[in-house]
Amino acid sequence: MRALRILLIVVVILGGLFVIADRVAVHFAENEAADKVRTTENLASTPDVSIKGFPFLTQVASGELDDVQIGIKDYEADTGADADAKSAGVPKTIRIDDLKADMKGVSFSGDYSSATATSATGTATVGYDELLKAAKSEPTQIFPGIKAQVVDLSDGGNGKIKVNIKITTPAGARTYPVLSSVTVHGASVQVHADDLPKLVVDLADARIRSITDFQQTIDRLPGGVKLDSVQAAKNGVEITVKGSNVRLAG
């Protein structure tokens, strides 16, 4: 009995040491991976990297990690603006808040210089102040003496965006709230007015839609993930992304 007790104690101690070694190793790997992602994506700050699954060391031995989660606080995505658009004041980048991605089946090279995930899904938020940059927020003439502009974007409820349109006429100015749908088309987030106020329709639907309807390209996301879906939320539009054979580093 004494020998069995000693054996059990030894097994418990060794098991504890293995767990400690495993957690130390995963912490080191997370820090190294975070630095690699920061360098590869040219980020302003170091992202959060969390390697899931236990034990970590057996995953390393197999050459593939089951699940890696990455969080980036502020990411500057490409807007796809050409030279003419940039000269006209269209921003080259758009800020994405709290980009979180879940990478599955992450294989890596022997020297850990590169890593690729079989698949990836994630979420992020584009603030209304950022999306407003894509709208015509400067007064634009739609008829002689009549101008329109987007003055504000906010949550309209039920997945809709409320687009506040200011119409200025010789008789004065008035702001009209317009509920709009938001969808993903390729690499762009598109905003389309559902119903226009009667005054706006009377003025001419097509002309006013050149103000109310707009799109924002969001390209070159981390690892090559792509836009999947979008919906309006309290603090901005929430987007989901997905991808396959996503490069994390190298």
UniProtKB/TrEMBL annotation:
It comes from the Bacteria. This is DUF2993 domain-containing protein. The lineage of its organism: Bacteria, Bacillati, Actinomycetota, Actinomycetes, Kitasatosporales.
